[in-house]
Amino acid sequence: MTASFTFVVFEHLNEVTCSCEGPYIVDTHAKVLVHILEERAFKECDKISFLDHLREAASIIVSLLILVVLLLCLVFYFKCKIQSGYSISKRNGTARVNYEARIMEDSGNIVHEAETTQHLDIDFAAGDCQKSFNISLVTRLRKGCIFEYWSATYHLGSSKEGLCFVKRMPELSTEKERHLCETVALKLKSLESSIYVVNIIHINLEKIPYYVCYEYMTYGTLKDFVLNNFRKVPEAVVSNSKASIKQSKELVTLASQVAEGMVFVTSQMFNHPMLSMKKVLTTEDCNCKLYDIYPAETALVKIKSHMKKDDPSFAWMSPETILYQQYLPQSDVWSYSVLLWELFSLGETPFAALEPSQIAQHIRSGGVLSKTRECPDFMYAFIIKFGLIPLRRGRKR
């Protein structure tokens, strides 16, 4: 624009110079030239100003469009998060099993008809933020050896709420049971977070009854996941088919995640008595998380209480636990080996044909789990190498 404007000025100067006939005429031409130059200058300035305003308007419109797109993306993101957190979805065309029903089917004193609509509100100052955290117990799922298990809802101030899973000290507890619950809760309070362990939302030690509040896992147990998403391969192609190899790789990935969780738990001085596929929960992304872990010093108490039941889970108990009522770090390795057998047998129950007393006798006499058709040879050999003698079992998985 500057070059164009300069060319016009010199063009008019040449015209004036060529037609000079005297001072008056020159002066007149000069005034005319100034007038022309002013008109041209104003036109050029108006043109520049208009284009500048046009660019500014376009820039503002583009910025507003980008802002609208970002807001829509945020709304879509939070909508997806809410739906994934509070709905029971389908994976691979198979409906999820109701989480509460799975807990009720767990071993122990099963509550066949869950006690519902019992509510308990507890308010307390949560940390430095001084926000009111309260829970409402909804359904008692079962009564275990140490804790009662409930589904519940939680509210943190007025900004956050959701579903949760609560392990609570029974109301009619002895002094010894209260002390045990307090010990477990205190140890869990010092537990570091891990992607392989179910997240703890809050631990209440302010008021009795004590409780531990966990995130609500809506995607079921590892056993549910395997039963719903893995198919048994026909015997004729079980050893060398591409489907069988691919399935084995996926199962190894799941087994590795559980092993990582157990290594972490052990490093935090915790144990997982009677680890089984029912004690491993799965996330939306098919990752495994452990729950129901206990401090090392309370693991034996948990085992002894469980052994007094009418239907104890002997299949996941190590020989030293059954024979001598001992619980060692290596006892978790035995339970993990049984979990591997479950996993690579695609959800079958160990010693399913035997009664609990028969299982105990079978293990006492040195018996081991038989190889199933689905379990690969390499994995069955790996499971057997754990052995029956505790010293043969390393802490590393």
TrEMBL record:
Domain Protein kinase: 135-397
GO terms, molecular function: ATP binding; metal ion binding; transmembrane receptor protein tyrosine kinase activity
Pfam families per UniProt: PK_Tyr_Ser-Thr
Residues that coordinate or bind Mg(2+): 292
GO cellular component: plasma membrane; receptor complex
Name of the molecule in the record: Tyrosine kinase receptor Cad96Ca
Keyword Membrane: yes
Cellular location(s): Membrane
